[in-house]
TrEMBL record:
It comes from the Bacteria. InterPro entries: Homeodomain-like_sf, HTH_RpiR, RpiR-like, RpiR-like_SIS, SIS_dom, SIS_dom_sf, WH-like_DNA-bd_sf. GO terms for biological process: carbohydrate derivative metabolic process. PROSITE patterns: HTH_RPIR, SIS. This is Transcriptional regulator, RpiR family. It comes from Thermosipho atlanticus DSM 15807. It holds the Pfam family SIS.
């Protein structure tokens, strides 16, 4: 942190007297529970503090100098982490050697997979595969870092005899999502579960099933979904996204893909073989 630059905690204390009664209540909660706040969606924070609406949270972070809730949480996480670049089971610091970074990433990833092994039950995965199997069209939705996982999902499921759609253009997606059909399925990926471009077009969908992969099942996305895969990693990032979580998100896609292949029998295996052959001319 630059000399003279206030921490998030100092900004809250400096502006405390100018806050409303509800704002002070929120400030007190943030100061006492910063570790919890950085893992909460804006709706979850408002609910737990006992506020009437999310607008109080918006006024709070704007009053202390932040333009968005995400910026506020990232700054708060940075204050907690100090010189830590990433806190994910094991802190990674700016003076770590390449060997330490490698070992910490691998050990943290292994632990993350182990922690989610029992969390994703057979019933949950079977239900996800059932929804995908009965769908005529699969729409993969995600922006920013989540777009990479959504694109990967679209690529994996494209081997099946289904219409697959993916785009990083939110306007194009909004048009597609206006014309959802009963046998459509949306796979929506958002770590925060509060991405407006994902949530708003899906709030009033008709008939189509929604599978969410998110870091918070109580988020806005989680609440409107038919099925939720909650990928929750205890990591604090200063200026990075939820790194380890993306490995788990990709694993969910691969597990669902494999279940569909197994359930599809010889027909799907033949489709998979044909798909592989279509790439043969791209290799020496």
């Amino acid at each position: 942190m630059n000399k003279g630059q206030l921490t998030t905690f100092e900004k809250i204390k400096a502006n405390y007297n100018s806050l409303s009664k509800a704002g002070k209540k929120l400030a007190d909660f943030v100061l006492k529970n910063p570790e919890k706040v950085i893992r909460m969606s804006i709706s979850e924070l408002a609910r737990i503090v006992g506020l009437k609406s999310e607008s109080t949270v918006v006024k709070f972070y704007r009053n202390i100098g932040f333009s968005g809730y995400h910026d506020f949480k990232v700054s708060l996480a940075g204050d907690l982490a100090g010189k830590s670049i990433l806190h994910s089971y094991k802190d990674i610091y700016i003076n770590d050697s390449v060997d330490n970074v490698k070992k910490k990433f691998f050990s943290s990833t292994i632990r993350a997979f182990h922690d989610h092994l029992e969390k994703f039950t057979d019933k949950l995965l079977e239900e996800g595969a059932k929804i995908l199997s009965s769908s005529n069209r699969i729409i993969c939705l995600g922006y920013g870092a989540s777009a990479a996982i959504a694109k990967y999902a679209a690529f994996r499921f494209s081997v099946f005899d289904k219409e697959i759609f993916f785009s990083e253009d939110s306007h194009f997606n909004a048009l597609i999502l206006r014309k959802l059909k009963e046998n459509d399925c949306i796979i929506a990926i958002s770590y925060s579960g509060e991405t407006k471009d994902v949530i708003i077009p899906l709030e009033h969908r008709r008939g189509a099933k929604l599978i969410a992969i998110t870091g918070n099942k109580e988020s806005s996305l989680g609440k409107i979904s038919d099925l939720v895969f909650e990928v929750k990693i205890e990591e604090i990032s200063m200026r990075t996204d939820a790194l380890i979580s993306r490995y788990i998100q990709m694993a969910i896609i691969d597990i669902l893909f494999t279940i569909l292949v197994i359930n599809g029998g010889e027909k799907v295996l033949n489709e998979l073989t044909a798909a592989r052959k279509s790439f043969s001319h791209l290799k020496f």
